[in-house]
Amino acid sequence: MSRLFTLGSVLVLPFWLLMILAPRWRVTQRLVASPLVVAGPLALYALLVLPELLALLPALARPELPAIAALLGTPAGATIAWMHFLAFDLFVARWMYLDARERGWPAGLLSPLLALTLMFGPLGLGAYLGLRAVGLEALRGFLARVRAGSRPLWWVTLGSAALLATSLVLQLVDARQVTGAPVWMKPAKFAASVALMAPVLAWILAQLPRTRRLGRAAAVISLVAALELVIITVQAARGVASHFNNASPLDTALFATMGLAITVLWLAQLYIAIRAFRHPFATPARTWAIRLGLAGALAGGAIGFLMPRPTPAQLAELHAGRQPTTLGGHAVGVPDGGPGLPVTRWSTEGGDLRVPHFIGLHALQVLPLLAWALERRRRAFAARAVVVAGAGWLGLVGLTLWQALRGQPLLAPDAATLVGLVVLAAAAAVALLPAAARAREPAAARA
């Protein structure tokens, strides 16, 4: 089974690498044009499944978690599932590749999406479908504004997207782990975060009156974001943790440098937020989406300053005169590196400060997208909806922070946390539903 497992990966990997690294090459185009690229894993899947078809049918006809878990927990079951993933993921990637070429998408946009699909199939497909719904022309207009808003942020966007694709590919050949996660997962996650943050900030700057101070703020953000990505990548290449690492003077110095860089980035982003709160943008919905998105990003970033605090166990070591190899952590009530959710690695046994940190940071993307979607459909209540969503988003940051600080896993909230969530949802409904109902009334009735 081990040899078949490896053989399946070997059969599909060349097609992935060609689509990601050489999408315009004629050889790539000719090979991927044929659906036979998935013939290898399909044949191996048939070889494994057909002899066991009668034994597998009961579990597959009426799927239940214990039966499926038992099936996948065997070498044969895991290998069968792996061939299933390989065949379907490659076929989806082939469709994305062909569809993107037909639509004239640039390789620089498609390659990171394919790399994301290679590692986390549905996430890559979802990202592609989202961008496809937006449309290439709208996307080009957005990218033109990004380039016009800040050249440094534009280059950081391209660099972080390249690092994301590279990190995802490196995970295929580098099996090392750090604190229970693949060593290249940290660079991939931070590259994705910067690749989302930098272009939105540049887009905002393109709509603000140009000043030297704004230009300097963008340059500072670009510099410190690039510095952080470089340090994280260097530590991954060394096979050690980049965050909270106190194992050697070098590790301590690098993490301290990252902490200083993030502080500078936060202050520069605060300056941009102050300017945004003083400037009306094209529409009320966009104005409040940008303002509250920046507020959410600042709140999420501020939570990062809680993470370097020594845990009780680390403080006990310090008081005993010993030097702990780790200072600070993401988890609350449990050590870092324990059982966690897939991909994010958020703790499933204790609280995790990364939850409110993540939610807050990505208000900067979610709220402008919400404003765009509502205005595209000419919703009369777009501005109110954005304000309600933004206030609710900030409330969710506070609620998940409170949950994490009490040592609760995200998916195991207590009654108080659930009550808080219900109150947030009810408040949002009370604030939004009357405006939505009024917007559905005929014009004569409103008059």
Keyphrases for this structure?
73% helix, two-stranded antiparallel ribbon, disordered C terminus, 447 residues, single chain
Describe the structure.
Among the domains are: 101 residues; 122 residues, no CATH class. A hairpin with a 2-residue loop joins strand 1 and strand 2. The chain contains 20 helices and four strands. It is 73% helix and 2% strand. By secondary structure, the chain is an all-alpha fold. The relative contact order is 0.06.
Radius of gyration: 24 Å
Major sheet characteristics: 2 strands, antiparallel
Share of helical residues: over 70%
Number of strand elements: 4
Averaged pLDDT, please?
89
- Overall structural class, as computed from helix and strand content, comes to mainly alpha
Order of helices and strands: HHHHHHHHHHEEHHHHHEEHHHHH
Strand content: under 5%
Shape: globular
Q: Outline the low-pLDDT stretches.
A: 443-447
Strands side by side in the biggest sheet: 1-2
- In DSSP terms (H or I, runs of 4 or more residues), the helix count works out at 20
